[in-house]
Specification:
The structure is a single chain. With 395 residues, this protein is α/β, with parallel strands linked by helices. The protein folds into 2 domains: 137 residues, Aspartate Aminotransferase, domain 1; 226 residues, Aspartate Aminotransferase, domain 2. The protein contains 15 helices and 14 strands. Helix 8 links the parallel strand 7 and strand 8. The longest helix is centred in the last third of the chain and has 25 residues. The mean pLDDT is 97. The protein binds pyridoxal-5'-phosphate. The site of pyridoxal-5'-phosphate (PLP) has 13 residues, from helix 5.
Length: 395
């Protein structure tokens, strides 16, 4: 019903993943394969294409009227997929998640305040904290049985009077960790003890593989709802990253008011028409597409993990319960990070996200985006196999 094998030419279409590759990676080979930025090389759900086609056919693209249907679609989606009951009054649309994080920081903290991040963590967390002149407090994740866990005892010892906010990524990027309820509850209790605002970025919450289950932070720890802001979007789930619409959800009226004041102060309470139409259509019509996508991604994950571990003996992919971003540690390959990076970049002509981008703990890792049609994935795997051939022979 949905042809995820179809290769769509994205070069020359303002696709950041493809068209910024040479500039950002230095790989200028015409056959380079991008496995970095987190969007997919698949067509969006047909209902999204139809909604956008209807809009362009009508050809009137004036200001968007927020009648409540967008929030309604979000609320229904969260109830259906995650059993999360939301009041529409808790929802503030933002022009994406990262911009929402910036607005939250401005609403609840001051320059010089500290923001907790759990590295290795999504690199834009670091960027938006520093751009807002706040400081990063790294709470290093620890590996246990192939997945990440938080060391909250270590974090608590390092909190100061200036620590105001925690950026929590659930599920986690990179690492694909789906947090357990008790882990979320422990973090929530820590936030309550130290009067911290907990920001739960759940943009990857729909990209969960069979056997795992996402628990929204609001569901796991309703007792700290007053200090919680949850960020969600349709853009990652349905491959609409360029639509740039997200939402912040806050049950605490005073907290939401502070956030809405920032949104108003930046003139962001008038929404991008195309983004709103595309994301509402996705929530309303995209479920069958997502249900077909997830097993396709799971098969890509299994293929990628098996082949990268065979190509580079000693390489180890982290157990991935969510996201389409394979997180691979090359520390036991006997090769230096520089050598590994050069094999991937120069020999395989693949742009993967460098581990250090994700902060402390990422030095020997690379992140590979495998959300691409199988023919492209197979080509990438064949090249990786070749890129490590001599290293295999030497072992
Ligand atoms: C954890 C996380 N948050 C936010 C984003 C980006 O959100 P947006 O494009 O809406 O700013 C990403 C994209 O990869 C992500 O992985």
């Amino acid at each position: 019903m949905f042809d995820f094998d179809r290769v769509i030419e994205r070069r020359g279409t303002h696709a950041s993943k493809w068209d910024m590759m040479a500039q950002l990676s230095g790989i200028d080979a015409p056959d380079a394969i991008p496995m970095w930025v987190a969007d997919m090389d698949f067509a969006a759900p047909p209902g999204v294409t139809e909604a956008l086609a209807a809009e362009t056919k009508r050809a009137t693209h004036g200001y968007y009227a927020n009648t409540g249907s967008w929030t309604g679609a979000l609320v229904e989606w969260m109830a259906r997929r995650h059993g999360l009951k939301l009041d529409p009054n808790w929802v503030s649309p933002t022009p994406g998640i990262v911009s929402g994080l910036g607005l939250v920081l401005q609403a609840v903290s001051a320059p010089g305040d500290e923001v907790v991040v759990f590295p290795p963590a999504y690199h834009a967390f670091r960027r938006i904290i520093l751009a807002n002149e706040r400081r990063i407090l790294d709470a290093q994740l620890v590996e246990a049985n192939g997945r990440y866990v938080m060391d909250l005892d270590a974090l608590e010892k390092r909190l100061t009077a200036r620590t105001k906010v925690v950026f929590f990524c659930a599920p986690h990027n990179p690492g694909g960790t789906v947090w357990r309820s008790e882990e979320i509850r422990a973090l929530a209790a820590c936030c309550a003890r130290h009067d911290l605002i907990l920001v739960s970025d759940e943009i990857h919450c729909d990209l969960i593989f069979a056997g795992a289950r996402h628990t929204p932070t609001l569901t796991a720890a309703p007792e700290i709802a007053d200090r919680l802001i949850t960020c969600v979007a349709a853009t990652k789930t349905f491959n609409l990253a360029g639509a740039h619409v997200g939402a912040c959800i806050a049950t605490n009226r005073a907290l939401k008011q502070r956030l809405d004041q920032r949104i108003a102060a930046c003139g962001l309470a008038s929404y991008n028409r195309f983004g709103m139409i595309a994301t509402e259509a996705a929530w309303r019509t995209g479920e069958a597409w997502l249900d077909a996508l997830l097993p396709y991604l799971a098969a890509n994950r299994d293929l990628f993990h098996a082949r990268i571990e065979a190509a580079a003996p000693g390489a180890r992919a982290m157990q991935l319960d969510a996201t389409y971003l394979a997180w691979v540690n090359f520390s036991d390959t006997g090769l230096s990070p520089k050598d590994v990076a050069s094999r991937v970049k120069d020999r395989a002509r693949i742009f993967a996200s460098p581990g250090p981008q994700f902060g402390p703990g990422g030095d020997t890792w690379l992140r590979f985006n495998f959300a691409t049609p199988r023919p492209i994935l197979m080509e990438a795997l064949a090249r990786l196999d070749e890129a490590f051939q001599d290293a295999r022979a030497k072992r």
